[in-house]
Amino acid sequence: MKRFRTFIITRRKINRAAAALLGAAAAAGICLGIKHSTPDSVPAFADAEQILRDGTPHEDEPFDIKGFIASILGFDTDKPETIIESSSELFSASAKATHAPATAEPKPEETPAPEQPTQNPDPFPAHEDIINPPGLEINNATNYNVDLCELAKRPLAVSVTKSDEPEVLIMHTHTTECYTGDEMSGESERTTNEAYNMCAVGDIVAQTLEEYGIKSVHDKTIHDYPSYQGAYTRAMNTITNNLAAYPSVKVVLDIHRDAFVYPDGRKLSVTADINGESAAQVMLVLGTDSMGLYHPYWQDNLSLAAKIQSAAQIMYPGLMRPVNLRRERFNMHASRGSLLIEIGSNGNSLTEAKRSAKYIADALAAALING
């Protein structure tokens, strides 16, 4: 009859056995590359025993040997597949979700951030659009046969370089012209006050051109007071003096406002709705040599006017009245880029005229830069 030997498993023996088992498992993990362990991460036997000492059950407590071994090894001995799950990223919970069958509930897709619109640094119409207008109107008082759309295609006789020197001269043959409305304090036809006459409108043109890097000279000399007669002769002296002082000037703008009084006393008001606001309409007036006066540049002037008209038609539909081609010269023989600009009329308000001064300056800059 065989005798059975009694073995007493003490807490210390469990600690040593578990520590040995943990050390062996860690070493095996190194060899197999499990969890990408390094030799420095393997604890010494004594260290392992110390680690386990506080986690082993007391002698008088029930002891779950399977749970204890599972806690050491990191997997359930009754479920061998947990060895792979705990030791390989391929079978991790996140990997399972990635390789889940088609019937599994799909992960919600992240909404991509909206693409930022490409910012176009050029605020002007394209060159191709400016030189190919769908149609431009002209009131032709001469016997010359002109085609504004064809003139818009012609290369400009003047160009701006955006240098530190002024390239545009702004002046006013009829400097004291002004507008109707409360702004005028009852003076609805003419005033020498620069805050209300054509100088106030010219300031807006100059400021707007400056924003595009086009420098200008704004000459506010009064030519039509105290005498209205001879204003164009005096204005020509001002133009000549400025061209001599600033040889960099290529464009000369003579800025006016139109005028007409109806039989019932009403004054002409020409307006357009631009961006929900009332703005004074603008008319470009061009002189010629039709009366026999020297003016070799009138077609160059008209080509620039055609490009401005085209750009304004694109940028601010309704702003422009038809181009007015005249027999008179209006001092436009002074340069290849001379224009007479009528901003509104005597029935318009100064506020409407100032709005349009900015708009026509925008169109002028577009023509000079992109035309």
Can you give the helix content as a percent range? 25-40%
Count of helical stretches: 11
What is the name of the CATH superfamily of the largest domain? Zn-dependent exopeptidases
Distance between the termini: 119 Å
CATH class of the largest domain: Alpha Beta
Overall body shape: globular
Q: If you consult CATH, what is the topology of the largest domain? A: Aminopeptidase
DSSP strand tally? 9
Structure, described:
With 371 residues, the chain is α/β, with parallel strands linked by helices. The protein folds into two domains: 11-98, no CATH class; 127-370, Aminopeptidase. Helix content is 35%, strand content 10%. It contains eleven helices and nine strands. It has helices at residues 11-32, 45-53, 65-73, 81-87, 93-98, 127-130, 148-153, 198-211, 231-245, 298-315, 350-370; strands at residues 138-140, 168-171, 216-218, 251-256, 271-274, 277-280, 282-286, 323-325, 338-343. The strands form two sheets. Strands 1-8-7-9-4-2-3 form a seven-stranded mixed sheet, with helices on both faces. A two-stranded antiparallel ribbon has the order 5-6. β7, α10 and β8 (323-325) form a beta-alpha-beta unit. α8 (198-211) packs parallel to α11 (350-370) and α10 packs across α11 (350-370). The longest helix is centred in the first third of the chain and has 22 residues, at 11-32. The chain is globular, with a radius of gyration of 44 Å. The termini are far apart.
